[in-house]
C-alpha cells in the first residue's frame, strides 16, 4: 500500500460529517458525505464513478457489500443492546446510543451507494451458538463483544484500502467510516478498562484471532525497534495492522446465522 496516498486521502476527511447524519434524510446524507470528494457533484457523480468501476471490476462492489455486512452486524448489535432492559448502565448508555446512530448511518450510506446491488441484512446470532448466551443480560459479556466487533471492524476497513485505490471517491468515504470506527473502538476499550490502543497482540480475554499480527514492529521495511531504540510494545501501539476478508469472516462468522441471499 502507498502510505502517502492513504495519508493524503485521510487529510480530506470531514470528521464532523457522520456526527451530523442523524439530522439528514438518506438522500441528503449521501450527498453531503460525498460532495467534497466528487468535485462537489454529490451522489449523482459518485454513482457514475461507482458504475464505471463496476463495469471494470466487481471488486469495489464486493468490498462495499463486505463493509455493509459488517455494518449490519454492528448496527444490529447496538440496537439490541440498547433495547435490552437494564443492560447498559447510565454512564455508558450515551456512548452506546451515539455509536448506534453512527452504525445505522453507515448502513444507510452503504445501501444507498450499492442500490439494488446491496446484500440484504443477514440473520445474526449474537450468542454465537450459545458461547455468549448472556450477551444481552450480562453487561461484561456485552462490552467484550462490542470490543471484539469494533477492533475487528477497524482492521477490516484497513485491509480493503488497496482494493479501493482505483476509486478515490469511494476510498475517501471508506476512510471517513474507518476513522469513526476507530473512535468507537477506543471508547469501548475505555469502557472495559482497557487502553485505547492495542499493545503487541494483547487480546484482553477476547479471541486471539482478532489481534493476530498486531505485534508487528516493521513498517515500510524498517524495524522500528532497532531504528528508534524503543520497546516493541510502544512500536506496536503506534500502528494498527490490516485484516483480510477471510480472516474477518472467520472471526465474525459464528455470529452470522444466515446471509439471506
Automatic annotation (TrEMBL):
This is Ferritin-like domain-containing protein. CDD domains: Ferritin_like. It comes from Spirosoma rhododendri.
Amino acid at each position: 500500500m502507498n502510505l502517502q496516498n492513504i495519508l493524503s486521502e485521510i487529510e480530506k476527511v470531514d470528521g464532523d460529517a457522520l456526527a451530523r447524519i442523524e439530522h439528514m434524510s438518506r438522500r441528503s446524507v449521501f450527498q453531503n458525505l460525498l460532495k467534497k470528494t466528487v468535485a462537489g457533484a454529490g451522489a449523482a457523480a459518485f454513482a457514475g464513478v461507482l458504475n464505471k468501476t463496476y463495469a471494470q471490476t466487481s471488486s469495489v462492489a464486493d468490498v462495499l457489500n463486505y463493509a455493509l455486512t459488517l455494518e449490519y452486524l454492528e448496527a444490529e448489535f447496538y440496537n439490541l443492546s440498547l433495547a435490552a432492559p437494564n443492560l447498559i448502565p447510565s454512564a455508558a448508555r450515551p456512548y452506546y446510543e451515539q455509536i448506534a446512530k453512527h452504525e445505522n448511518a453507515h448502513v444507510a450510506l452503504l445501501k444507498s451507494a450499492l442500490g439494488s446491488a446491496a446484500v440484504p441484512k443477514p440473520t445474526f446470532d449474537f450468542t454465537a451458538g450459545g458461547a455468549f448466551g448472556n450477551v444481552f443480560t450480562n453487561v461484561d459479556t456485552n462490552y467484550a463483544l462490542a470490543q471484539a466487533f469494533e477492533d475487528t471492524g477497524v482492521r477490516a476497513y484497513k485491509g480493503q484500502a488497496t482494493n479501493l485505490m482505483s476509486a478515490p471517491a469511494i476510498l475517501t468515504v471508506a476512510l471517513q467510516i474507518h476513522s469513526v470506527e476507530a473512535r468507537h473502538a477506543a471508547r469501548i476499550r475505555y469502557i472495559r478498562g482497557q487502553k485505547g490502543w492495542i499493545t503487541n497482540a494483547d487480546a484482553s480475554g477476547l479471541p486471539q484471532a482478532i489481534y493476530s499480527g498486531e505485534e508487528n514492529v516493521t513498517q515500510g521495511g524498517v524495524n522500528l525497534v532497532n531504528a528508534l531504540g524503543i520497546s516493541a510494545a510502544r512500536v506496536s501501539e503506534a500502528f494498527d495492522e490490516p485484516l483480510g476478508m477471510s480472516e474477518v469472516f472467520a472471526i465474525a462468522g459464528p455470529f452470522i446465522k444466515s446471509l439471506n441471499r
